[in-house]
């Protein structure tokens, strides 16, 4: 019997998430071979030598790694600011690309990257939104699709991280784009996933009518200087009339809470994603899907359009919070932002 073909992947970035990804790529993906890893963070080499197979090659430079490691695909797990240039580099070198969210904190850059991905349809491109790969969210999706909840009219999410006494995310806030962009993008995506936001539209380009957001610096006053908050509330009215509401926070003292309520006319379904087991499970499932999509030419659960639509809504919510105004969307489907204020922090 011939050995089944495995997808040769190079991993760029061995930080907190990158290290989890490396172990999964090396030991828990029967259809993937981790051929190389690239890191710039001090100490990563010791971790890699102790934890990864000896066959993995190491590179300090991402371009060298993508060109010379023999990889057919790349997983980008680096700091957010490097995602867009690394995605473009991978696509230009003819590699299939999977990248952690978000593509960029800047909408124009996001649109440019997605245009490049669309113009290379022979290359697979995946930005996985992890909740779509979690079994409890998938079970709720089945109930939505088989209509056992009736007509879905709203989704309500809560995602509150444990309070971090080191305040790491305060300095991180300067580059993260703010709580709605960094954290809220997952809630926005899962809302879009359940609310059938592309059907029943008078204008197919316009999926959203308006958003409004509010926020507080309840514990971390310093966030104000970055135009950020530690508790934020966002409301999104989709053009099909459906509504998403989200409470995002970073200040829970007794653990971490993540909960999604899918509101249907016959029943509600409440998904409690309060589990690190499910989080790791989603990091296995998205890689399995990515490798199958390349090896068997199968479709992906998250498309470039999903990434772009979620980024537009996240940017609009962050703007709404910063400027204290609702944000409407135009007929091209873009949020109407006064550009002079859009990036003011
Ligand atoms: N659920 C999710 O989807 C999820 C969860 C956590 C993190 N993330 C995303 O994953 C990314 C990584 O997060 P993290 O917590 O592991 O960050 P981290 O800061 O722990 O690690 C970042 C890594 O990037 C590397 N790096 C920095 N600049 C580089 C460059 N120019 N070239 C190559 N490598 C470079 C660093 O050496 C480090 O290994 C972030 O974009 C984050 O938003 C997504
Ligand atoms: C709908 O899907 C759910 C979840 O898989 C299942 O439990 C339920 O029996 C299904 N209902 C119908 C009517 O098919
Ligand atoms: C949520 O997770 C915490 C810590 O892992 C646990 O102590 C708590 O019981 C969980 N809550 C629920 C509702 O599952």
UniProtKB/TrEMBL annotation:
Residue ranges occupied by any Gfo/Idh/MocA-like oxidoreductase N-terminal domain in the UniProt entry: 7-120
Pfam families referenced in this protein's UniProt entry, alphabetically: GFO_IDH_MocA, GFO_IDH_MocA_C3
GO term, biological process aspect, one: NADPH regeneration
InterPro entries per the UniProt record, alphabetical: Gfo/Idh/MocA-like_OxRdtase_N, GFO_IDH_MocA-like_dom, NAD(P)-bd_dom_sf
Signal sequence, renumbered to the chain: 1-22
Keyword Signal: yes
Keywords in alphabetical order: Signal
Occurrences of domain GFO/IDH/MocA-like oxidoreductase (ranges): 137-267
Example of a GO MF term: oxidoreductase activity
SUPFAM superfamilies: Glyceraldehyde-3-phosphate dehydrogenase-like, C-terminal domain (SSF55347), NAD(P)-binding Rossmann-fold domains (SSF51735)
Domain of life: Eukaryota
Protein family: Belongs to the Gfo/Idh/MocA family.
Name of the protein in question: Probable NAD binding Rossmann fold oxidoreductase
Organism of derivation: Cephalotrichum gorgonifer
């Amino acid at each position: 019997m011939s050995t089944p073909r495995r997808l040769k992947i190079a991993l760029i970035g061995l930080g907190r998430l990158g290290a989890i990804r490396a172990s999964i790529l090396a030991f828990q993906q029967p259809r993937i071979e981790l051929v190389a890893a690239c890191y710039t963070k001090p100490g990563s080499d010791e971790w890699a030598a102790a934890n990864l197979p000896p066959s993995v090659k190491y590179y300090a430079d991402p371009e060298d790694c993508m060109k010379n490691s023999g990889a057919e695909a790349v997983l980008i797990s680096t700091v957010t600011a490097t995602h867009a240039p690394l995605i473009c580099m991978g696509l230009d070198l003819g590699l299939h690309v999977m990248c952690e969210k978000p593509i960029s904190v800047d909408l124009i850059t996001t649109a440019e990257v997605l245009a490049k991905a669309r113009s290379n349809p022979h290359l697979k491109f995946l930005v996985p939104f992890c909740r779509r790969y979690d079994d409890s969210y998938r079970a709720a999706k089945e109930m939505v699709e088989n209509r056992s909840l009736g007509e879905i009219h709203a989704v309500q999410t809560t995602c509150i991280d444990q309070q971090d006494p080191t305040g790491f995310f305060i300095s991180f806030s300067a580059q993260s784009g703010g709580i709605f962009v960094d954290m809220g993008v997952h809630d926005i995506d899962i809302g879009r996933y359940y609310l059938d936001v592309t059907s029943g539209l008078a204008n197919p380009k316009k999926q959203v009518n308006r958003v409004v957001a509010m926020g507080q610096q309840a514990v971390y006053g310093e966030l104000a200087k970055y135009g950020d908050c530690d508790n934020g509330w966002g409301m999104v009215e989709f053009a099909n009339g459906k509504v998403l509401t989200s409470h995002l926070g970073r200040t829970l003292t007794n653990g971490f809470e993540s909960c999604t309520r899918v509101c249907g006319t016959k029943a509600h379904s409440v998904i409690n994603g309060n589990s690190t087991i499910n989080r790791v499970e989603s990091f296995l499932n998205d890689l399995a899907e990515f490798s199958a999509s390349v090896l068997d030419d199968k479709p992906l659960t998250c498309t470039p359009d999903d990434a772009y639509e979620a980024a537009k809504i996240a940017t609009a919510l962050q703007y709404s919070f910063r400027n204290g105004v609702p944000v409407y969307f135009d007929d091209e489907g873009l949020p109407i932002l006064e550009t002079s204020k859009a990036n003011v922090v």
